[in-house]
Amino acid sequence: MPLPVPSSPLASVNSVLAEDEWLPRARAHAERVARFAEPFVARRNARKKHPIEDFLFTYYTHKPGQLGRWHPGARIALVGDAARERLGWKHYRALTEAERGAAGLPAGDAPEASAAVVLDLPAYAGEREETIRFCGVILRGTAERPANFGCFGLHEWAMAYRSEKFGIRHEYLPLRLGAAGTDHVVEEHRIRCTHFDAFRFYSPDAVPLNELQPTRAAQRDLEQPGCLHANMDLYKWAYKLGPAVPGELLMDCFELAWRVRTTDMQASPYDLSDWGFEPIAIETPAGKSAYVEAQRGLAAEAAVLRGRLTTALATLEAVLA
């Protein structure tokens, strides 16, 4: 049930979805999430680990139950008896009588009236202003910088550098080249990671080997679109923008992050053959070539999603202006 074009870009409702339009989308979202979340929950209950498939649920703070909640995005109202539940969800509100009238919906007290809800944008944006503004800085700044495709995923190797002295993060995984071989790869390459959330896990002896010394404060100046971790983090920015991001976009970012994590670990120093993953041997010319090819493909996907997130973000920024 489309509404007339709003007279103001800050109109609280731009379109309305009937129950037979939005419920299938919500169900499809739940099924999409379950394919990833249910095996994770089963492993967690059995106290088992997976080096790739657990990461998005353990490193990031968004829980499987939160991920499973579908949202239509900003300024899209949901109508129908099933929408009534969302009046108990944080940041949702009922449509006003004026909004119902503009949408051609019966008055709220009419016998035939159904529930009609929408995201309360001013309340949500006001509560999350600092996060919204930081997301804008990161998303736009990253998009504007040139991509670096010469890092070869060596951040994971730097985390395992001198493991006989410091240990390794994934203690249940063997090193593909052993401790000495891993150290040799680190020492024979330039290490130029730009991403603070990778750099902060470096082995202490690897820290001075990095050409840059990323900090949290410098993150807004260093993020670049070739970085696997920056592209994986699109999922983080998507869920931090909350219900203003449509569920379909959130899961597109999640699934990209899943593929990024897979590539990241295949290029790592760990031996994942027991888990069914072939290595990307970045210590060889062929491995470097394969890594860059994968990195470029993931960066191209990320650029599209970054643009879609920036569009969703602009709606929130307009409310704060």
TrEMBL record:
This is 3-methyladenine DNA glycosylase.
